[in-house]
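User: I'm putting together notes for a lab meeting next week and I want to include a structural view of one of the chains we've been expressing. I don't have a solved structure, so I'd like a prediction I can at least talk through. The sequence is below, exactly as it appears in our construct file.
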Amino acid sequence: MSFLNPLMLLGLLAAAVPIVIHLIHKRRPRPQYFGAIELVLRSVERVERRWRLRRLLLLLSRVALLAMLALAAAGPLLGREAERGTSSAGPERLAIVLDGSLSMRARYGGTSSFARALTAARNLVDRMGPEDQAVLVLAGRPNRLLVDRPTPDRGQLLRLLDSLEPGYGPAELGEAVSTAVTALGTPKDAAPEGEGEAPEVAARVVVLSDLAQHAFQSAAALDVPGTRSKARVEVVDVLDEAAKVRANHAIARAEAVNVPGEAPRTVEVRARVQSFSTEGGGAQPLDITLRSQERDLEAGSVDVVPGTIVDKALRHAFDRPGHIPVTVALEPDALAEDDVRHVVVEVRRPVRTLIVDGAPSGVPKEDEVFYLERALLAGAADQPPPRVITADDLSRTDLAAFDVVMLAGVATFTRADGARLAEHVERGGGLFISATEGLDVDLYNAELGAVLPRTLRGMKIVDAERGGVGSAGEVGLADPDLEHPVMEIFRGDGLGGLLSTKTQGYLLFQPGGQKAMSVLVSHSDGQPALVAAQAGQGRVIVLTTSVDRDLSDLPIRPAFVPLMRQVILYLGDALAAPDLRDTLVGQPRELRVPNGVQELTVIGPDGAETDFSAGDIENGKLAFAKTDLPGQYRVEAVFAGPPEPLRGEDFAVNVDPTESDLRPLSVAEAQAILLGTAPDADPEVAAGATRTKLLGGGVSPEALVGVLLLLMVLSFLLESALTTSRPAKAR
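Assistant: Thanks for the context. Below is the predicted structure for the 731-residue chain, given as C-alpha cells.
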C-alpha cells in the first residue's frame, strides 16, 4: 500500500487522544460500607465487567473514527496503483487507445463493445494520480488524437470520452499505438535546456479493443520521443465472451442487374451472405428483405451454414424507371450494421421509338424496315413496340413524344425536318441513321452536320471485277469494340454471328474531324461500319450500310436482333454501363460531372450537404471524400437555373465486409503483434509489457476513500449508541 498524501498520516496521532482520555478517566470503585459485604462484592464485579466491555468498544470506535479520517485524507493506493505510486519513475504518462472500428458496435447483453471500452477508459482516468498525465486516441481511418499533448486534467479527459462514438470503418491498432506513443513524448519546446541525457519517463499505453483480428496488422513503435524510455503496452479485451459467442453473419456484397425479357422495369438484386463462425452445425434460415426508402419490396429466406458463403437473388418490378435507392437487409444479429447493404438500382426505362421508313413497300419483305421492325419486336416484353411512319409523315409527327428516331434508309427530308431532328438530339434524344443507295449526303451534311459524328462523303459499292475486297466483291466486319455498352453483348460465341456479315456497299466519312466518336465495329477494309457519338445531351449512331438486304446481309444474321436492341437502349439512355464501383466507408468517390455544371452538392445519409463550385471540377471529374457514413448519397447540380438531381451520379456507401469477422485473437496474440514478438514470448521481457484480459489488480483512490468514509460513519454510529444507551442500573 502507498498513499497519495503521506503527510496526512500524521493525523493518526489524533487516534491516541481517546486512549489518553480513557486512561485518565478510568473508573475506580468507591468504597462502600455495608454489612452484607459478600453480596455487595458480587454486584460490583458484575457491573465492572459490563462497563469494561462498553468502555473498550467506545474506545475502539473513537480511535477507528479518527484513524479512518486520517487514512482517507492520505489517499491510499492498493495493488497496481500502489506499485505505480511507489515507483521511482515518478509521474506516469498514460495513453488510452480506444478501438473505434465498426466491430466495436457489436452488442452483447444489450451493451456495445465500445460502451464497455468507454467504461474501462473512465476507470483508467479515475485512477490517475495528481501528477499523472494522459492522452486519448480513437483508432480508425484516420486515427484521432483527441488532445495535443499529455494533460493531467481528468475532467477534460472524461468530457472527451463522453463525446466519442465508434466509426463505421476499419482500424489498425498498430498505427494507433504508434500515434499514442508519439503523443506521450516530450515536445522539443518543452525539453529542458542543456546537453544532459534525455530523461526517463514511465509511459504506458492501454489498448481497449474487442481483439477482432482484422484490427491487428502491424507492430507499434514504442520508443517515446524525447526520452530514453519505451512505453509499456497493455491489451485489454473489453469483452469477456467466448469466441463462439461472437459468431456473425453479414451481407458482404450486393449488386443490381436489369432482367431482359421479363416484365417492364424488372430488376434482380443479388446479395452475397457470409457467415463468420468457428462452430460447425446445420444450415440456419435467415429472413432477407429488399426495401426501398418507403416500404418493403420483396421478402425471402436464405439458408446459411456456419462458416460458409451463399448467394441469394430477389427480383422486383419497379413502378417507375430511373435511379432508385434500395437496401437489402438480413435479420439483425449482434452487429446489425453489416446486416444491410445499400444499392442504387438503375431501373431501365421504356424507350419510345419512332421508325421512319425510307422505302415502304406493299410487299413486306421488300420494305426497308421489314427486318428492323421485327428485330425490335422480338423478345421485347420490357419495351413498347416502335411506331413506323413514312418520310412524308415526319413533318406531321411530334418528335418530343419519342426517345429515339430511326432514319431507316431515308434518302431525303425537308430542311425543316432536319432542324427538328438536330434539335431533338441536342435536347437529349437519340438518332439512328442507316444508309441506302441514293442518300443525299449534301442534305445530311447541311442539316444534320452539327450532330453527325463525321461529315459524310458518299456511297461506296464494292465491285469484285474492279478489285473489290473478297472473291464476291464483299467486305466483312472486324475489330469490334467489345468494351462499348452496345457491343459488350457479343462477348463470347455471339461474336461469330456478327463478324460473318457480308456487305456490298456502305457510306464513307470524310477523314479527319475534331468530334469525338467511337467506332463500334469496322468493315474488313478498315472503314467504319457502326459509329457512335455524343451530340449535345443526346446520342447519334450511324450504320454505314442498310437495314434491309440491298447492301448487306446483316438483317438475316443472328446478331442483328440483339444489335438493334442494344442500339435502341443505348440511344434511349437505357443501356448505361453498370457502375461496378463499390464504395466503402472512408473511400473517396469519383463523381462524373457533365459540362456546364456551375455548382454541385452532395447530400449524405444524414442530410448533411457538401457544396462544390465549378473550380473544384477537373476534367469533368470530382473526388468526394466525406464518405464516413454508410447509406445513400444524392447528387444535385446547378446548370443555369435551380438545382436539379444528377441521378446518374447518386451512389451508395457500405461498410467494409472485413469488419464483419468478429472472431478475436487471444490477448497474448494481439499483444505479440503490437510488440513485434512471437505470441509465446515473455511479454515482461518484450518492452516490459503486461498481459491483462480485464482491467483489475488495483483499486482507485476514490473507491478506497469511499470505503473509509463509510467505516467512519459506522464508527460514529457505534460511538453514539454506546454513549446514549446506558443500563438503568448504571444510572
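A couple of points you could mention at the meeting. DSSP finds 13 helices and 36 strands in the chain. The two ends are 46 Å apart (CA to CA).

User: Perfect, that's what I needed.
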